Fold this protein.
Amino acid sequence: MARQEIRRGGGRAVRVLRALVGFVVAIIAVDVGIRFLGLGEGHLPPITDVLVRSLSLLVQPEFLADVGATLLASLLGLLIAIAIAVPLGTLLGSSQLAFAATRALIEFLRPIPATAMIPIAILIFGQQIEMKVALVAFATMWPLLYNTIYGVHDVDPVAKDSARIYGYRWFGILAFVVIPSAAPFIFTGLRFAVSIALIVTIGAEMLAAASSGIGAFILLASQAGLGYVTVFGAAIVAGLLGWLINLALERAQRSAFKWTAEAMRSAA
Amino acid sequence: MNARRSPLLRFALPLVVLAAVIGAWQLGTSLAPSFFFPTATTIGETIVEDYFSGPPAYLFLGEAVFTQVVPSLGRLLAGWAIGSIIGVVLGFAIGLLPRLAGYVDPVLQFLRSMPPPVIIPLYLVLFGIGDGMKILFIATGVLWPILLNTIDGVRNVPPTQLDTTRIFRIGIADRLLRVVLPSAAPKIFAGLSIGMAIAIVIMVLSEMVAATNGIGFLILQGQRGFRLPEMWAGVVVLGVLGFLLNSVLLFIEHRVLTWHRRSKGLI
């Protein structure tokens, strides 16, 4: 570990500096490409204009309300999925019989792409937040359930037996052995679930012509002829948002599961 | 406790549960008929009619297989392959050059965080509404998990192995192909399989936004025309397709990585 730290090199300041250089070079390259080399054949606005628009969007209340709407729908859907998937997954993962019985069912349901459910959700739930929440809950259920089941199923039997010998009942074993040892897996599922939640929410907002949300804003901006500067400006804010969420989750994962380097590595 | 051994449990039980769930759907939808939820038999009949009622010369494959499934599958595999190749190559470069990584990593992390739907307008401008745009859109989504996993796998090659190749003056090509690649392979395969799941999600999305064929297009048309059985049939077909693709990938991984499991004492 120490060796890798050295190899990757540098303190925090150096890292930030390198990141900044990377961004500046990338932005200049794209800008030169658009302005002078005909990238996008004259349809693309210079990226510097887009970045300025992103900044001005960040203080525009209507846009912030749309960002809030997307985040709220994703969060509610995720919470519902967690509330169902983690207990259910723990149950299915701890019983050998239930594990064997439900495996095929889950293997068949899991690959159904979340986006395929968008039209069905629109029909049943309409175009508002209920539709988005239901969709996110359904879509994020599978990675969470799958990772919980496998995390719980793979708990070291020796650890469970040891706990039993020391007098723990099922609840103690669950709370002190099974859940901690499955937690890194569950968290990995959660990180995947979060990115799926954003894809589904924004995709649904675009397809349903929803009244609020980042997807609705982008759709409206492109239809109302507000120009690509606004459309791309909003896209960059969406990227920024996803980035911050990712960073926060990564940091949480790192500090919560310091004790298991393997879990951190399999989290990508 | 011997559930893992008993073939009855391993093969029969999951199928029984699957059949029970389909039966429950059938029972529920026929007892309480709903416009939104067609019965299992209606969905089944639609699948047979649309997908498996062709002439014997076409192996009984129906029209929808050729007009919808084949274009979808073509775009899916093309996008997945392009994304995978770029991801592995770029992953090798970044994983092996830690200096470069410092500059490039943050930019890539940002790009990765863009939810794919928001880049649709950009891709429409850059690549039009044809197959090329959809393939590149799929490739972009597939790229990230494969890239990150490859970087991770390449970085975690045991240092002793790298030092050994250096001591024996093994050339760079051999070092990459025979030491780094095999060592990173399990991680790369994990990325490929996540990439496949994402590819299907994005393929469907791209076909709903701008397409005149494909399973995603079919599902959206089913919804807009209130042809519910057609819509559900598309969803089931997508699920089966995803399952089959994942199984093929697992099979290949199993063959390729036999040595890996052996070395870890898992066989």
Q: What stands out?
A: The first helix of chain B runs from residue 7 to 31. Chain B touches chain A through 78 residues (CB under 8 Å). The mean pLDDT of chain B is 85. The two ends of chain B are 20 Å apart (CA to CA).
